[in-house]
Amino acid sequence: MSQFSDFIQMGGHGVFVWSCYGLTLLILGMNIIRPLQLQRRLVQVKRRALAQEGGADAQIPSPLSQVEQ
Amino acid sequence: MWNWFHRLGAPKSFFELSSKLLPWLSLLATVFLATGAFWGLVIAPPDYQQGDSARIMYVHVPASILAQSSYLMMATAGLVFLVWRIKLADIALQCAAPIGASITFLALVTGAIWGKPTWGTWWVWDARLTSTLLLFFLFVGVIALRSAMDNRDSAGRAAAVLALVGVVNLPIIKYSVDWWFTLHQSSSFSLTEKPAMPPEMWLPLLIMVLGFYLFFFVAWMLRIRVEILNREIRTQWVRDKLTGARD
């Protein structure tokens, strides 16, 4: 237990070290999540537009049909 | 005619190639980053002078290296776009900028956090830190220029020119620690010499650097794919994807 708290505290430098690693995780994570969000939104909007266009070539997409992730 | 096909076809082939590469690159990036972080935080020894705050190195140094490399890659895309007018290069430039800006921000902030216990200050206006701050503003400038102009082609060209002009800053960052007096230590790493630290420190650092590069390619590809879908929305292949049709 004390070994674990030593690890967290890092000889008084814990705040500095952990905030750096936390920020790294946050920034790297956002760079992955953000484009995935944008792609999902784009696909939704454009699918709706295509369906409204109607016609024989624009079928209403089934919820199971997968767009490239 | 062939040229027209070529231009139209390139984004599509990139999209399909990246569909195949992304799962593997993502897996590799995760493995490298997780291994490097665990190694740096738990296994690597504390520095004999700096103690445990030296563990910040394992995120600060990769972020700084990637910040500069991603700028160089963005500028290269700009050059390709200016010379050969390849649409995909313009997309690549546009998509590298936000990632580069965020990584430069990470390098600056982790540097400041490391500076506090090590130098006793968050920030000094010396050459290394100031030129890295300038790198951040160059990324932001490219993003701003790209979105400020309505005409996509002239916006792309303007952004590419700015990106190329900003390349001058890269050698300034690199040599700033040798040219001017600074608190920032000089590089402990070079391609030609033995690293100035023991293997139990440079090995996890090397793994983290590779992990950051892999992460960049994953994030870059993801953004490029969104932008390709966005720009090619009127083409048949994107329509087919959206409606779930198979070709």
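qc> Chain A has one domain: 2-52.
qc> done
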